[in-house]
Amino acid sequence: TYGNINHRTTWEATNSPLGKNDLLCMKSAPVFVDFPCEIFPVLFFGAPTLLLGHGASRDPARLVSKMEQYGATKVVMVTSLLKAIHQVCGGRGGRLAGLRYLRTSGEPMEIRLAAETIRSIPGLSIVNTFGSSEMFNPTAFHLTAENLPTVDPDGIIPAGLPLPGRVTALLDENLLPVPWGEQGVIYSVGPGVTPGYLNGVGEDAFHDLDIAGETRRILCSGDLGRLDDLARLPYPGRQDHPIKIRRVRLEAGEARAPSLPFRGVPDAPVTARKDADGDPPRAGPDILPRTPVAHS
Fold first, then answer.
1. Which residues contact residue 112 at a Cβ distance below 8 angstroms, ignoring those fewer than 6 apart?
2. E strands within 114-251?
3. Bridge partner residues of 284 (DSSP)
4. Helix residue ranges per DSSP H, 170-296
5. Could you tell me if 228 and 246 are in contact, meaning their C-beta atoms sit under 8 angstroms apart?
């Protein structure tokens, strides 16, 4: 809704304000969840924009070259694209010197990758947001050279703290809060969280819970987490087994379920694979035939 977009845009603009000398690099397709995070802050501040089109994301070397050529100061990207940028032109050192704000999302961010990026671009701030499209990133972790986690360089950046107006909870299988430091499933409610799916599918992901004396509809993310000493959410993985193809997340369990009721099918694990060289990846169940039972 307009209210949710305004709420998120206000937060985005507050955390990475754009001035008259800033230039935002806009490269996401309009159907991608990052698109409103790119266009609305620009409209909010009236800042100039570098329009590259979503094809630039498929060519990291071209993306870096264009950002340097025009002096982009802010960009939004998924973590895998940031990894690819580190590999172009012999590494990241000395590149994108004018970049001030980097917002990452969509995938877990390794502490080592964040540290290498910040050290190679002086003055850079990274805002790593967490959460699926249905949740519109309910939490965020703001990284600078001063607050980089150093405990486990091979670990994952925490999911961070809830955005203003959001409620994020760690619950167990009985929808009860887990003790501090123990692992639970991440649930969220608040501005930007979807109220439901088309035609009522996926209703089992929603639950009505009493929150501060008010019954609210809360969404299960399927992501696992726990609270660290600073009340942030480290991200150890997912409860299910999603498959990502062309940036579209598929739930393996949902693709597997329709095959199981058939007689003689004990299981149907779902995998992503290419049928031939050059073919786009596809996902589908691998039907495991039931072992014949010999009768005497």
1. 153, 154
2. 125-130, 139-143, 161-162, 167-171, 184-189, 206-211, 214-225, 237-238, 242-245, 248-251
3. 271
4. 252-256
5. no
Q: What is the pLDDT of residues 191-215, one digit of tens each?
A: 777 777 777 767 777 888 887 778 8
Helix axes 79-87, 111-120, angle to 10 degrees: 50
| Closest by Cα among 247, 296, 227 to 29 | 247
Amino acid identity of residue 275, one-letter, is D
Q: List the beta bridge partners of residue 90.
A: none
The interaxial angle of helices 34-45 and 2-15, nearest 10 deg, is 70
Nearest to 271 by CA among 259, 262, 257, 281: 281
Are 149 and 155 in contact, with CB atoms under 8 Å apart?
yes
Taking only the tens place, the pLDDT of each residue in 7-36 is: 777 787 777 788 888 998 888 777 777 777
285's CB contacts (< 8 A; 6+ apart) are 255, 256, 259, 268, 269, 270
- Read off the pTM: 0.72
Residues in the chain: 296
Name the maximum alpha-carbon separation found in the chain. 85
Could you give the 3-state DSSP secondary structure of residue 222?
strand
Q: Kindly report, residue by residue over 37-55, the tens digit of the pLDDT.
A: 777 777 777 888 888 876 7
